[in-house]
Design a protein that fits this description.
It is found in: Cell membrane. The protein is mostly helical. The protein has 11 helices and no strands. Helix 1 runs antiparallel to helix 2, helix 2 packs antiparallel against helix 6 (116-141) and helix 6 runs parallel beside helix 8 (175-186).
Length: 280
């Protein structure tokens, strides 16, 4: 059977969108849904699975960039050192809320929340939350001791971030934005909140991808779809690799307001397109 290169090209476009948006607080899932609707790459069992699995490709970029830190903490854990044990337990604590809610509500989320309308709401609400929470954080940070190293994150702070991460189950809210907001509430600096969100993404996306892959009906998959999935995974990884370091450098110097304004503006544009029946 001949490959459908037009379909693979669409998959590459979605993968580029994922790689760019996964770690910045504008919602990778939301953008993939919208772009997918525009180019005709949405609404099937395969595209739903594809959009989750390629996020794991982007997360792999974090593993590569932070490999020294990850490997050091793995060795520390198996030496039963306090530092290594605490690092991984903090990640476990931060992952638990999303793990529980994800298992319970996964089917309902797939059925009711993956649409342009819900993404538009998520864009706007998430943007407003970013502005309000960042303003509050900057006022409090002047009087509080802010965590400036991942190793200093407490279990309570990790749980707060994990609870806020659950907001990302609503497409358009953004996992990055949700965890950074949780970090601000918990007393983490912006850069460390973002870095912690990277580490949290590893088990979360492995779990989400595993769930999608386990439930996917492989009897219907085509050769073109297999190639699209492999190529999309690789493209998402490469693009994310280029984006992560630049994003962290930006956070150390600039406020998040620019992303919030973009989200709100994009949300209202999306609402207008939906009302005009350009996007459904």
């Amino acid at each position: 059977m001949a490959l459908n290169f037009y379909f693979i090209l669409k998959a590459i476009i979605i993968a580029i969108v994922e790689g760019i948006t996964e770690f910045i607080p504008i919602s990778s899932t939301g953008h993939m849904i919208i772009v997918g609707d525009i180019i005709g790459f949405s609404g099937t069992e395969f595209t739903n699975m594809f959009e989750i699995v390629i996020q794991l490709g982007a997360i792999l970029a974090v593993v590569v960039l932070y490999w020294n830190k990850i490997w050091t903490m793995i060795k520390s854990f198996f030496r039963f050192e306090k530092k290594g044990i605490k690092f991984w337990m903090v990640i476990v604590v931060g992952t638990i809320p999303a793990l529980i809610l994800g298992v319970i509500f996964n089917d309902l989320i797939d059925k009711y929340l993956f649409s342009a309308k819900t993404v538009a709401i998520g864009f706007i609400v998430g943007g407003i939350l970013l502005i309000l929470t960042e303003n509050s954080y900057r006022k409090r940070a002047k009087h509080l001791k802010v965590v400036k190293d991942v190793d200093e994150i407490s279990y309570v702070q990790a749980l707060k971030v994990g609870i806020f991460q659950c907001l990302a189950m609503w497409p358009g809210m953004s996992r990055s934005a949700s965890t950074i907001i949780g970090g601000w509430v918990g007393g983490l600096s912006t850069a460390i909140a973002a870095e912690f969100s990277f580490f949290l993404a590893i088990p979360v996306m492995i779990g989400a991808s595993g769930l999608k892959l386990r439930r996917f009906n492989y009897a219907t998959i085509t050769q073109t779809e297999v190639v699209a999935l492999i190529v999309g995974f690789i493209v998402a990884f490469i693009v994310a690799l280029l984006v992560v370091e630049g994003f962290i450098a930006f956070l150390k110097k600039k406020p998040m307001r620019v992303f919030a304004i973009y989200r709100i503006f994009a949300g209202f544009i999306l609402v207008a397109l939906i009302l005009a029946n350009v996007i459904k």
